[in-house]
Amino acid sequence: MTTDNAVTYEVTNGVAWLTIDRPEARNALSKAVREGLWDGVRRFNDDESAKVLVLTGAGDKAFCAGADLKEMSETSLRVPPPDFLPQIGRNIEVAKPTIAAVNGVAFAGGFLLAQQCDLVVAAEHATFGVTEVKVGRGSPWAAPLSWLVPPRVALQILLTGDPIGARRAREIGLVNDIVQAPDLRDHVQTLAERIAANAPLSVLAAKQTAYLSARYPIGEAYDRAEEIWEPVYLSEDAQEGPAAFREKRTPVWKGR
Fold it and tell me: What family is this protein classified in (predicted)?
């Protein structure tokens, strides 16, 4: 199913694949791509059949090379508005888990898209870079980077604009897994299906909990975590899990 000629949306076994389909332009963020991403993320939020979102790019060279600089020059864009493209956790909330399947370069806006997914799986040849300092542009969206990786590493990435490879990205905690390029889709699909098979209320609460310490002092983070998890403890699924374990069967989750 297509959200736009430049972006596609398809669901396989509860996993929604949102794919930037401009491999000839290194999946750069043209207006059509940005609109397609907005449509796709909103569609995922509303799609009860989709439990996990995977964001990726077509081809084997680029996940997303960032803004379409030719288009940017033609439109004389100065300061991109905060809604220039969907920034998960900033200008659009996505309660369900998200995974970036990085199949090549993830530069600038491409780095943004990968950074703001919950998990990142990279092909061996993937590279990551916040290259704005090399072209005189800006990266306000990189504010969470020093929470995701050590501050001095974040500073090096931001100040030099130099790209880092997949192995270095995994060493610093930016990437969860590295796989051979031909195995990327199958690996991510399997990972996403493992997440989708878990108790849905627990998955949603777990995602919320993971981000609390980035937003609140630790005492308040604990208090908010208790509020998040109480309805999970009180749910039907909280009884179904132990019952299924006792009866040696697969749980049947109801999401309530």
Answer: Belongs to the enoyl-CoA hydratase/isomerase family.
Are 131 and 175 members of one domain? yes
* pTM over the 0.85 mark: yes
What is the domain extent for residue 206?
Answer: 200-246
Q: In terms of domains, do 103 and 190 share one? A: yes
Q: Same domain for 177 and 101?
A: yes
**Token code pair at residue 173:** 């905690």
Reported as a single tens digit per residue, the pLDDT across 218-229 is: 999 999 999 999
Specify the number of domains making up the chain.
2
What residues have CB less than 8 Å from 108, skipping those under 6 apart?
A: 65, 66, 67, 129, 130, 131, 132, 137, 139
Do 111 and 58 have their domain in common?
yes
Give the number of other CB atoms < 10 A from CB of residue 246. Answer: 8
Element (H, E) at 184: helix 184-196
| Per-residue pLDDT at 4 | 52
Task: Decide if 255 is inside a domain.
Answer: no
Which pair of tokens denotes residue 46?
């509303």
User: Is 253 part of a structural domain of the chain?
Assistant: no
Is residue 107 within 8 A of residue 133, CB to CB? The reply is no
Using CA atoms of 40, 145, 220, 100 in order, give the dihedral in degrees to the nearest 10.
30
Please enumerate in sequence order all residues whose Cβ is within 8 A of that of 102, keeping only pairs 6 or more positions apart, or say none. 56, 63, 114, 120, 121, 122, 123, 126, 128, 166, 175
| pLDDT tens digits, 47-96 | 999 999 999 999 999 999 987 666 665 565 678 787 889 999 999 999 99
Residues in the chain: 256
Task: Give the residue-averaged pLDDT of 108-134.
Answer: 95
Q: What is the pLDDT of residue 186?
A: 98
